[in-house]
Amino acid sequence: MVTDVTAETTDVLQRLIRNSCVNDGTPESGHEVRSVDLLEDYLRTPGVEMKRYEPVSGRASLVVRIEGSDPKAPSLHFMGHIDVVPVTPSGWQHDPFGGELIDGHVWGRGAIDMLDVTAAMAVAVRRLIRSGFRPRGTLIYSAMADEEARGVYGAEWLTQNAWDDVKSDFLVTEFGGARLPLGGPPRLPIMAAEKGSQWTRLRVRGTPGHGSVPYRSDNALVKAAEVITRIARYKAPLRLGELWNRIVDSLDLPAVSRLALTNPATFDLALDRAPGGAAPIFYAVTRTTFSPNIAHAGVKLNVIPDSAEIDIDIRTLAGDDGDAVRQMLRDAVGDLWSEVEIVAEGDNPATESPLRSPLWDTLTEVTRKLVPGAETVPFLVWGATDARFFRRKGVVSYGYGLMSERIPFGEFIKMFHANNERIDQESLRLSTELFEQTARAFVG
């Protein structure tokens, strides 16, 4: 049965999807101001402080504050983002910006990443405001621009230029809470850490020549293809640290499986036997990963290219930044390394928060009320979220929501930045209830 809170969160999510705030990485994309207008109008209430920030025209963020009565009480920040990645419409079963409700699911770009959580947080905050909520600790809600392109015009800009407006002791953002495929009682991951990134561009050198005489030519594109293949096949050193051991201990696996997944000698074999949908994630959270995703070469069809460039999405575990990544690239490329140069690289180290804290305990207690028998488990985000900017400022930050059983874990994970993104209404209800009850318990 669809409840009023479900219908309300569904409606807000549908409108956010239809705003089509597509961020392609350029300053003129995004147009998040459309969703800031929507959320500001939705949350506007006398006595509630709301501020807009627009460092570049159209790239707007919104911050809502409910000031606490006790300056010494811990403060809490619910942070969503309102931009989404581009789509290929031909790959979708339904209009990616239609926000259609079909068989209890809302379809559209951002339904999973992360307009569902942004909408649920907004509805929870509005319900708190309308109820006359007067917290002891300050409650903040934000809807950030530009998360999908490194937060330059959103969270990064606000933490650098408006810190007093967004700072808090604790923060919740995307995207935990999807039920791990392990059988038994629900195991719900709280994202306590996230990988860093060191996006790198390599240039492969060659010698120009006429395309009609390719025999023994020094073709940069051909060499680049081999470099790409070697990097794609490369396995970085395994990192089975404290966080991974805590994750495995929390999963209620058979003793043999736990032992195999915590032993470097048996890990890769055990990985192939991981529960459905979990193997790619287990791999990603135990290694720095390399994914060569873009290549450019050539100036004309009949000219053998003298250079080719490869862009590699490198996601790092703590301690694998900088020189360590460069050494891994050298190891991966092998004897072709002398033909390669690094022409650009990013610098975004991994971040983490304590595996237990007062907020962790509150999220766990609320979860058990909403999902009887459930247990929360620590986990690591293999991508990137805006939480990293706040962790670096000392804010204890977690990624969490509550997903129902209607979307299996493996399918849920595959919908990020993919076709046919959708979220079920029961997940919307659970997340909204989670955020409202967490606020009442933690800062109320």
List how many beta strands DSSP finds: 19
Across the major sheet, the strand order is: 1-2-6-3-7-18
Radius of gyration: 23 Å
In terms of per-residue confidence, which ranges show pLDDT below 50 for 5 or more consecutive residues? Answer: none
CATH architecture of the largest domain: 3-Layer(aba) Sandwich
Task: Estimate percent helicity.
Answer: 25-40%
Please state the structural category. Answer: alpha+beta
Which outline best applies? globular
Largest sheet: 6 strands, mixed
* Number of alpha- plus pi-helical segments: 15
User: How many structural domains in the coordinates?
Assistant: 2
Q: Roughly what fraction of the amino acids lie in strands? A: 15-25%
User: What CATH first level of the largest domain would be assigned?
Assistant: Alpha Beta
For the record, give the distance between the C-alpha atoms at the N and C termini, rounded to a whole number: 29 Å
CATH topology heading of the largest domain? Aminopeptidase
CATH superfamily of the largest domain: Zn peptidases
The overall pLDDT average reads 94
Describe the structure.
By secondary structure, the protein is an alpha+beta fold. The chain has 2 domains: 4-192 and 351-442, Aminopeptidase (3-Layer(aba) Sandwich); 196-345, Alpha-Beta Plaits. 33% of the residues lie in helices and 22% in strands. The protein has helices at residues 4-18, 33-43, 115-130, 155-161, 163-166, 220-233, 242-250, 255-261, 267-271, 279-284, 323-333, 358-370, 387-391, 409-414, 425-442, and strands spanning 49-56, 59-66, 76-81, 101-102, 105-107, 139-144, 170-173, 187-194, 196-197, 200-205, 209-210, 289-297, 303-304, 307-316, 340-345, 351-352, 375-381, 396-399, 422-424. The strands form 5 sheets. A 6-stranded mixed β-sheet has the order 1-2-6-3-7-18, with helices on both faces. Strands 9, 10, 12, 14 and 15 form a 5-stranded antiparallel β-sheet that branches. Strands 4-5-19 form a 3-stranded antiparallel β-sheet. Strand 1 and strand 2 form a beta hairpin. The protein is globular.
